[in-house]
Protein: HDIG domain-containing protein
Organism: Desulfofundulus salinus
Amino acid sequence: MLPLATIGKQFVHRLAPLMGRRRVRRSAAAVIFFLLITILISIEFVPQRVNLREGQVSPVQIPAPRSIVFEDKAKTEEMRRQAAAAVRDQYDRDPLVSAAVQRDISTAIQGIREVQADTRADEEARVTRLRGVLPFSLSRETLVALTRPAPHTLEQVERSVNGLVAQALDSEEGITPDKLEAKKASLADQVARWGLSKPYQELAQGLIRYYLRPNSFFNAEKTRLLKEAAMATVPPQMVTIRQNEIIIRVGDVVTKEHLAKLEALGLTQTGVPWRILLGSAFLVALLMVVVLLYLYQQNREIYEHAGHLYLLGIVVVVVLAVGKAITAINIPYWPELGNLVGYMTPIAAAGMLIAILLDTRLAMLVVAVMSFLVTLMIDGQVRFGLVALVGGFVGVYSVSKLSQRGDLARAGVYTSAANIVVILIMGLLGNTPWGLMITSGVGFGLINGILSSILTIGALPYLESAFGITSAVHLLELSHPSNPLLRRLLTEAPGTYHHSIIVANLAEAAAEAVGGETLLVRVGAYYHDIGKIKRPYFFIENQLNGENPHDKIAPSLSTLILTSHVKDGVEMAREYKLPQAIIEIIEQHHGSGLCSYFYHKALENGHAENVNEDEYRYDGPKPQTKEAAIVMLADSVEAAVRSLQNRTPGRVEGMVRKIIKDKLMDGQLDECDLTFKDLDKIAEAFFQVLGGIFHTRIEYPDLSKEMERRRNKSAGSRKQPARKSAGG
């Protein structure tokens, strides 16, 4: 038998190729997230259950953790049994029995009458004949007495016995087989009280005992149907338990009613709740399919990016785990408040993280799904899910247009305010006491918003780093002038810094016009020329003294120095750990464009046949995204327009469109997704921004001449009154 270590190595060796497949990895991750979410919403990790038995003295006091209405099945069953027992057994009456019995009795009496009328026969013959008439046995003395004529007595017996039999058989109940003997004995007792002579008393009793028979027979089917109908009329016995109602107190003897209430609240359940677990599993699977279908239809980029799906699953699981931990908090001195800690579940944190890192619309959907899961996780109480839903939506909306880092803190404040309002509304609807409602609303609502903001701010850097995502918050941090790289650009290459600021304004306006990522474009424009820090004075915007070092070197060397700022910029960006999206803009902002000035200078220097155009081009690559292409166009347009001597609106617009056309014709825009319509919008955006930067200015007068003119005018006005006085 192989050792366990060897078996483990073989398993890992066989599993490794499978895990290397993209589909297998995604499926395994989906199963893991599915199991984790199902467990989180289904299983109570800190159960507050008791082990009580009927008849035991309770050692604890147990309040109801929530309001519930449930059916007391034992009580319902008992009420239905009582209703069924109240239904009388159903019998079918045979109406012919009474007449037949009376007829048989009259026939027997008639036989006795005939024997008494036969006076010619001797006594022995009459006794013998009487034995043949009566089907039951009587003593010889009784038979001898009955042979003697007594027509009135015999008629009285016939009339009385038939009347008594008719009364018994025609009664409401009739005579059932099980009550026949008792009825015979009862009627015989009545006969004994008639005062008849002993022979006729025995005759009457004998007639009753022999001829009386049942006329009412049990109908089992009819009885069953009536009992079932009676049971159906008994409604389920519902029991209402209100939150914080004391179910059982210390010292109370545990009854069936106590156990029924505890079981309905889930406080006596033992073992794994397999039915709940199975239902939760199906529900989680359904919700996961809904989210994936949404991504497949509306955001294929996230759907096809495994890392983004892993990020989505991690955020959901972690926030639900935090919510699970929060709901386990117990406040022993104020149990009513402890039942409301679910209001602190920070679903807004998941919404804000997904909105910042992935997509706002996806964040809205995930918040709705998680709010539903929170409802199930906290005993199906809709109020907690509703607070999570509203707070999550407000959180997502608050960060949907992030423009500065303080917006994250403000998002927490807005979420807190929304939570407080909804919690108070839920308190009013639930008739919660004012003190408890205000405490839970202000306290838990405020904590929810602050906790959501803290989780978002704390988790954001780690998630960005782990999944290689550049969030708006990171971009905002990079755009701050205090960033070390921007400060170096300002101090070591100030002309390039101011050039980058203008390029950023142009690029941001263009990106907004064509629906690009405006913040990414602005930050990318800030850093697109950071490579010029290494040799700033080789770039004209930094040449403050008018000396141009390119005048003293060959055009090929100038081109090499000029184009190297792209490579230098990429190296510096990686050194300062800039996001990959910014590095790509730096790398692509010149594409494979031609350094036309030095190329034509080389041609003018002679030996045109030895000049290779490829040596005077940037290394590329060409822009792969619309954001990189916009920065390229903004960079070229700013430099070209700045070189114009007479910047009239017509000349500026002509230059803008010429630059865009040249880049298009040179193939620099072939690999990005800009359309001709987008290029026209970009040109219009550039022109509007440039019109504000390079607008014409009025010519101000010479201030020294104006001041001299005013002094002369003032001096003349002071001399004029003196002359008038002299003339006077």
Summary: Strands lie at 62-63, 68-71, 91-93, 216-218, 238-241, 246-248. Confidence is low (pLDDT under 50) at residues 718-728. The radius of gyration is 53 Å. The chain is about 65% helix and 5% strand.
